[in-house]
Amino acid sequence: MRNPKLFLVTAAFLAVLSMMLCSRAADAPPARTQPFILGADVTFLLEDEAAGAVFYDKGVKKDFFQILKDNKFNYVRVTSIVEPTKDFSRGDLAHVKILARRAKAAHLGLLVDFFYSDAWANPEHELTPAAWKKLAFPDMVKALHDQTKAVLTALKAQGTTPDMVQIGNEITFGMDWPEGRVTSTISTGNAKTDAHNADVTNAGGWGNLAALLKAGISATKEVDPNIKIMLHHSLARNDALVHEWIDNLIKQNVPFDIVGLSCYLEYEDGDWKTTFDDIALHYPNLGIIAVEYSGQKRYLNDLVFNTPNQRGLGSFIWSPWRDNETIFDHQAPASATGNSSLTSFIAAQLSAPTKPPPPNHGGRYDTNSLMDLYPKMSQDYGNP
Fold first, then answer.
1. Per-residue pLDDT at 4
2. What is the pLDDT of residue 45?
3. Does position 341 have pLDDT exceeding 60, yes or no?
4. Does the pLDDT of residue 352 top 80, yes or no?
5. What is the pLDDT of residue 29?
6. For 356-381, what is each residue's pLDDT tens digit?
7. Confidence band, pLDDT 50/70/90 cuts, at residue 28
8. Which domains does the chain have, with CATH numbers?
9. Which residues does 206 contact at the CB level (< 8 Å), separation at least 6?
10. How far, in Å, CA of 184 to CA of 303, rounded?
11. Three-class SS string for the chain?
């Protein structure tokens, strides 16, 4: 005969166990729907190859993009500018098209970073392109739209539609100043930047910035509605500044998918995690990418990967063979001349004269022990 007490105890135990499992399932983050991005910025690649740069992986000479692929990188970031100047030749449409073709041939994802400038664009130098400076603001908005659409249409025509587009570079205080400039009362921690930011006399305000951003976003979606939109803030270590920035973009109804963050230094341990967690918890529809970094490679990528609710999508190392903590060791050439045959080849590819780049970036580049971090991270993050 069945023991009624034993039956009741067993039933109660199973009920409690079921509740625990259901609770854990409800609390579990959603499954990651795409591979974790391990990306690299290749802004300087063509000019360095024109100077004679050659790349080796464990002693074997290879194409740079193949080295990335072999070491489990899965994305590259390419800069797009409006008009090249004599001091800033990288990033014109011809360069972007070549790099996009090479990236797609290596089966790498493609992020195009629109500077909307003729040179560097960063929190202290968001310079309006020369061709736009005398335009009335509505005409500038249209020019930005048309520039974006022209580049993306050209990429689509050659079969290299980007997977992701970045509208502006490090636009912490806006872009295309003064019309698209914004300000903040929150300290950046840098006295020079704070003093610069305190001058609000020539700030167009959030409405103007939103108009510019919406123009670039609209142009992107007209070319391909599936392209993901990133907006880029320069200070991942400053949660208050990032939070204020996102709030203002949302108030202006700017539609975007991803917050890109520059992650070079923390003020204190935990600063990056604080910002990542804040975005993930307060803005659950936004993804997070460390779109520029160099040092603390494993530490940073682990933080992004472990962001709550799988909102950390990946990272892009800045200029991995050239700047800061590189993943290549460089043997500079003894000669001050570049590789003329390679220079001629790239000039022919660009269908335009190529100014010889600084020769010190030519020579041999060999992957070093820091490169070994990337296959291990790819494996640990469950990438295919």
1. 52
2. 97
3. no
4. no
5. 46
6. 444 579 999 999 999 999 999 999 99
7. very low
8. 33-380 (3.20.20.80)
9. 182, 248, 249, 251, 252
10. 27
11. CCCHHHHHHHHHHHHHHHHHHHHHHHHCCCCCCCCCEEEEECCCHHHHHHCCCEEEECCEEECHHHHHHHCCCCEEEEEECCCCECCECCCCHHHHHHHHHHHHHCCCEEEEEECCCCCCEECCEEECCHHHCCCCHHHHHHHHHHHHHHHHHHHHHCCCCCCEEEECCCCCCECCECCCECCCCCCCCCHHHHHHHHCCCCCCCHHHHHHHHHHHHHHHHHHCCCCEEEEEECCCCCHHHHHHHHHHHHHCCCCCCEEEEEECCCCCCCHHHHHHHHHHHHCCCCEEEEEEECCCHHHHHHHHHCCHHHCEEEEEECCCCCCCCCCEEEECCCCCCCCHHHHHHHHHHHCCCCCCCCHHHCCEEEECHHHHHHHHHHHHCCCC
